[in-house]
Design brief:
elongated, four-stranded antiparallel beta sheet, 12 strands, alpha/beta, single chain
Length: 706
């Protein structure tokens, strides 16, 4: 809201250029166009689209709302606009983009309808454009549908052979897997394998029992007739073979003779040696015979004579022992075979789950590829049928009829456009002028350059007739007005700054440029100071353009400051000073205006100020503007402090910057600022309005009491 009031103040300030721009824009944009405006006619048609879900006949169909959004863009394409221009034989210089821009295409939310409308001065032309546009788009939609379907058919035709190859590869992979792993039916195989393992467990238990029984019998025989298994077999063969028995008998007889002859003849007797050779020959024949019948072929050589035990009982025991040993060996071999077989079956059972998982994966892949191939074949057949039956996505079309009544009153529209455009343009111009204006319009701008205290903000009382003030001296002519109170407040601030260490007895009042009201403010401050009992002297030091003569009418005595400084006719201070009221004297500029800088900067001026300080409590020096000459800076250095007057609308930022630099270079003691005529400050404006209203009410009450 605050920004709105700021804009209103800007427009009020710049009302003249803003009004001129408003009138020009309104005339050319609104009034002139409204006089030439012809009535416009709107022709409208409708396209209704299919709402069914996407199928193989429309493979590129998207959601309804997205699809229609694409159709809206396609309808307004330049290509379709050119086709309409060709069909209707419209002028070739007509821009297709302009034609498509004038065509309004609307898709109401959550509907499958697109509305086309065209506005033109000729109702029949508008109708022909809409209907031709609808016909062309219906045909375009059908052609696109057919093209898309053909593209899909070509795609499917390429995919079917590839899919068939992949199916054959997967089937071959499954067949090889079954062959390599000897799989027919994994479930049946798992059941039968478990049964076989159970049967083998029973057989193993039975064989182990038989083996334990036979070993027990063999151990019993070994206790009765100690012999190992090979010895038992050999003994049975030896005892049952007549050749072996004969050879063994002869060997035993010779050994007996040899032992006898050793005793009788000695170990070296030839006959004994002959007997030993005969013995060796018989033993060699026995060993050869045994080797030929494979008795000792795979066992360490056994002394046959030791195992030869003639007699039927021993032979029976040896035969039974040999049979037991053979039975035990047979049972052990059978047990080993059964254990090996059951281990093989168990290993098969362990890998059956992995084989089943791999087979299922291959089978699923085979089924998926088979289904994909069947779908591709079916879709290809459907697409071939759809190519000949394609009708597009448009279900129906409602063509436009020739409008009878105009759609809009363009004259009123142009007037409204001109009015709004004028307001906008005028406001923009006012805003740009305000932004480009370097003038000082508010206190913030002054604060940016000066940090001096603000001693007063004087309204433009004389020009605006605030508080019914009709003169330049409201302190004298309207002493009870708020403006007079403001001048008294400035004087009161002087009292606060006047100390023994830094007395404030001589005050120079100046401004940046001429016509900022420094002379009027100097005179009213002098009146306010005299009104509180101080003896005041107002010195008019602006020798170039003195302004106090205009303010104090018919008071000048002809002598003044220039006369005193040049000592013309031995002029004295008492002769040159004019008393205007109690406690207030004025020293006017005088008549001589030659070389003001030399006069103001002379030692005589400094001496004059020192002499005057002895007679007066407060000396107000009305100095020239700071930017005009160096007079103000010189007087500022001679005085105890300077008061700078700034008037709204008279200076800009560059002037203010120059003033600041001049005061800094001159090392002038600036005691404060006085703002003059700052009505753009809202707070200040309302303050004076409210205070003035309160003051008028108070005066009226006093009059009524009297």
């Amino acid at each position: 809201m605050e920004e709105f009031f700021i804009y209103l103040k800007i427009i009020r300030k710049r009302w003249l250029p803003a009004s001129l721009v408003f009138v020009l824009v309104f005339f050319f944009l609104g009034y002139d166009r409204s006089r030439k405006a012809a009535p416009l006619y709107r022709a409208s048609g409708t396209l209704i689209f299919e709402t069914t879900s996407p199928n193989i006949a429309d493979p590129f169909a998207l959601g309804s709302q997205t699809k229609l959004s694409n159709d809206v863009v396609l309808i307004k394409s330049d290509t379709l606009a050119k086709k309409v221009m060709t069909d209707l034989q419209l002028p070739l210089d007509l821009d297709p983009k302009k034609l498509s821009t004038n065509l309004m295409v609307i898709n109401p939310e959550k509907t499958d309808v697109i509305e086309l409308s065209f506005i033109a001065e000729d109702p029949e032309l508008a109708t022909e454009i809409v209907n031709t546009w609808i016909k062309n788009y219906v045909q375009l939609d059908k052609d696109q549908k057919v093209a898309q379907t053909r593209e899909l058919a070509s795609f499917l035709e390429k995919q079917i052979p590839e899919s068939q190859k992949e199916l054959e590869k997967t089937a071959e992979k499954l067949k090889n897997f079954k062959q390599n792993n000897r799989i027919l039916d994994i479930t049946a195989e798992a059941g039968s394998t478990i049964q076989i393992i159970s049967g083998l467990d029973s057989q193993i238990a039975e064989v182990e029992a038989q083996l334990a029984s036979q070993k027990s019998r063999r151990d019993s025989l070994q206790k009765i007739f100690p012999v190992d298994s090979q010895g038992g077999i050999t003994s049975t063969f030896v005892n049952e073979s007549p050749i072996v028995a004969s050879l063994i008998k002869e060997i035993q007889e010779i050994k007996t003779v040899i032992e006898q002859e050793k005793i009788r003849l000695g170990n070296e007797h030839p006959q004994l040696i002959s007997l030993e050779k005969k013995r060796d020959v018989l033993e060699e024949q026995l060993q050869k015979y045994l080797q030929n019948v494979n008795i000792q072929g795979n066992s360490p050589q056994t002394n046959v004579e030791d195992i030869y035990q003639p007699g039927s009982n021993q032979n029976i025991l040896l035969a039974e022992y040999a049979n037991l040993d053979r039975e035990i060996a047979s049972l052990e071999a059978r047990l080993k075979s059964l254990n090996q077989l059951i281990d093989n079956y168990r290993e098969r059972v362990d890998i059956l789950p992995n084989l089943e998982f791999e087979q299922e994966q291959l089978q699923r892949e085979l089924n998926a590829r088979s289904d994909l191939l069947q779908n591709l074949i079916k879709n290809y057949q459907d697409v071939q049928i759809a190519i000949n039956n394609t009708q597009g996505n448009i279900r129906s079309a409602e063509f436009a009829s020739v409008p009878k009544e105009p759609t809009t009153n363009r004259a009123l529209t142009y007037l409204i456009q001109g009015f709004l455009g004028g307001i906008l343009a005028g406001s923009l111009v006012a805003y740009l002028l305000e932004k480009s204006d370097q003038g000082i319009n508010n206190i913030k701008q002054i604060r940016y350059y000066f940090s001096y205290p603000l001693l007063g903000n004087i309204p433009d009382f004389y020009r605006r007739k605030i508080d019914n003030i009709t003169s330049d001296l409201p302190v004298k002519d309207n002493p009870s007005s708020p403006v007079s109170e403001n001048f008294r407040a400035i004087v009161a601030s002087f009292n606060f700054m006047d100390t023994e260490e830094k007395p404030l007895k001589v005050i120079t009042i100046s401004s940046t440029v001429a016509k900022e009201g420094k002379s009027t403010i100097s005179a009213n401050i002098a009146l306010a100071a005299a009104g509180i009992g101080k003896k005041v002297l107002l010195i008019e030091a602006d020798l170039r353009q003195p302004g106090q003569k205009k303010i104090w009418k018919n008071i000048d005595n002809g002598l003044g400051l220039s006369n005193l400084l040049q000592k013309e006719n031995n002029a004295l201070i008492s002769d040159s000073v004019v008393s205007v009221m109690d406690n207030l004297d004025i020293l006017f500029a005088g008549n001589n205006q030659s070389n003001p800088v030399a006069l103001i900067g002379s030692s005589q001026m400094l001496y004059l100020i020192e002499e005057i300080k002895k007679e007066y409590d407060l000396i107000i020096i009305d100095a020239p503007p700071i930017s005009v000459a160096a007079d103000a800076q010189i007087l500022g250095r001679m005085s105890d402090g300077m008061l700078v007057v700034i008037r709204q609308g008279k200076i800009n930022t560059s002037m203010l910057a120059g003033t600041k630099e001049s005061l800094i270079q001159a090392e002038v003691n600036v005691v404060g600022l006085v703002l003059n005529g700052f009505t753009a400050d809202t707070d200040n404006y309302y303050y004076y309005s409210n205070y003035s209203h309160y003051h008028n009410q108070t005066n009226q009450k006093l009059k009524n009491k009297k």
